[in-house]
Design brief:
By secondary structure, the protein is mostly beta strands. The protein is built from 4 helices and 30 strands.
């Protein structure tokens, strides 16, 4: 097909390239369908795209404009193209593995990879891209798409701001061969050089025990037992609690296989948006609002707290799955000559995450400009908390935006460091690319850049 003009752009925080191409041939325009793949060569650089929309406009007797809107194929991971998903990662999983499971393909991962403890990552009615963004943003990252159409996760500041002056730049722009125009914007930033970063701090652990009263359970519905017999117990604990020991005042205890089953119970919302289950759930199977509907329910990492989309007065019937530890208590024929006697069972446990979920302080310089505290359940290691803290401090440096226009510059992406030699700006300087826009009209192709640089002081 014959292309009259084309433009493509991506900005930091926008996961996909977007753009347009104007066609000369009506037949080609008519053949193109929404979501058709398009390979576009722009200034010698190859971009894999999808057709996002088509526009035909006529102005009197002049030639109609045939414009096709384009977007990266990773748009299939986002609303409205993607199918919403519901999932809980109950076992520990690496950040990259969880993200790739969500989109079901590999990701160019240029961010710290860390282990997310089981039960921390749970999504409801979320697009796959939402899962990837949640993981990336927890560690101070952003999600992008490469020109070739591959999803990419990178640190918001691949090079820390103080290291811009010493790192090797990805691109060098000069007056003689590159620069066409330059515009500085005003500065409106709040300095941040100290932040508190914490992971998930459980307030308490859940630990409970009961006789198995299920009709189809291990005791077959019995709740009273004779001397010399046995009784089966169910022990429930939250993801933040570990069982250390189980002991009895008499008789013997032996572990059974874990028991998985479903429970239904009614929860009341008294003007709030949260309620508590009777015991930790593995997952929510169904939700029925008995009257007022407060929206989707989300299960918290503790397995007990459920949060509704809205606050109000309501009752909801929740069916959820439970996985309990099970023990068999065998009682003797008699104790102290008695054939009727009580038995006490004691369970001890320990509450608290074992992966180091405390809080740390990230500081640069004198720390005189504190930012807002950060708390995220996915931040389970010191290393990832440091990574997130650095991202916040780098974003809080005294930066200003500069808009540049230059001759076409291939293979340039947000996050890269550029060095600019521009006599009109008074000196050479370096900054991080935050936006890229390529535009081709006939044989002429130019690139416009948004760049964040350390603010100059007069």
């Amino acid at each position: 097909m014959s292309v009259i003009s084309a433009s493509l752009a991506i900005a930091e925080g926008d996961y996909a390239w977007t753009g347009t191409m104007e066609l000369a041939d009506p037949a080609s325009f008519q053949r193109i369908q929404i979501d058709d793949p398009v390979t576009l060569e722009l200034g010698g650089e190859i971009f894999q795209m999808l057709v996002d929309n088509k526009t035909l406009s006529r102005d009197g007797v002049s030639r109609p404009r045939l414009v096709v809107s384009l977007i990266s194929p990773t748009a299939c991971f986002a609303t409205p193209r993607a199918t919403p998903m519901e999932r809980i990662w109950n076992s520990p999983v690496s950040a990259r593995a969880a993200a790739e499971e969500a989109v079901e393909e590999s990701i160019q991962w240029d961010l710290l990879d860390w282990t997310i403890p089981g039960g921390r990552l749970a999504v409801y009615d979320a697009a796959p891209l939402d899962v990837v963004r949640t993981i990336a943003e927890a560690a101070g990252g952003v999600v992008e798409t490469t020109p070739g159409g591959e999803l990419r996760v990178r640190h918001r500041f691949p090079v820390s701001v103080p290291q811009w002056v010493s790192t090797t730049p990805d691109h060098i722009l000069t007056d003689a061969t590159d620069n066409l125009s330059c515009r500085e914007s005003h500065r409106a930033r709040y300095r941040v050089n100290r932040v508190m970063v914490r992971g998930w701090l459980p307030s308490s652990g859940h630990l409970s025990a009961e006789v198995d009263r299920r009709v189809d359970g291990l005791n077959q519905g019995r709740t009273t037992f004779h001397s010399g017999g046995s009784a089966h117990l169910l022990l429930n604990h939250g993801p933040e609690t570990t069982i250390q020991a189980v002991s009895a005042s008499t008789g013997s205890l032996l572990p059974n296989a874990d028991q998985s089953y479903t429970i239904s119970e009614d929860l009341m919302f008294d003007g709030s948006n949260s309620a508590t289950l009777s015991q930790p759930a593995q997952s929510i199977q169904s939700v029925i609002w008995l009257g007022n509907d407060l929206g989707a329910l989300t299960l918290a990492a503790d397995g007990i707290t459920v949060t509704a989309a809205n606050s109000g007065v309501a009752i909801v019937r929740v069916t959820f799955t439970v996985r309990s530890r099970s023990w068999n208590l065998s009682a003797p024929e008699s104790v102290a000559g008695l054939d009727s006697f009580p038995v006490q069972v004691r369970i001890t446990g320990q509450s608290g995450d074992q992966v180091g979920d405390g809080e740390i302080v990230c500081q640069r310089g004198d720390g005189a400009h504190p930012g807002e505290d950060i708390s995220d359940p996915l931040l389970a290691t010191t290393e990832v908390k440091l990574t997130r803290g650095r991202a916040e401090i780098d974003a809080g440096e005294d930066l200003q935006e500069v808009a540049l226009t230059c001759v076409h510059r291939p293979e340039i992406m947000p996050g890269q460091i550029i060095e600019v030699h521009d006599a009109l700006m008074g000196r050479s300087w370096r900054g991080k690319v935050t936006g890229v826009h390529h535009e081709a009209v006939g044989p002429r192709t130019i690139t416009s850049l948004e760049v964040a640089r350390v603010a100059t002081r007069s």
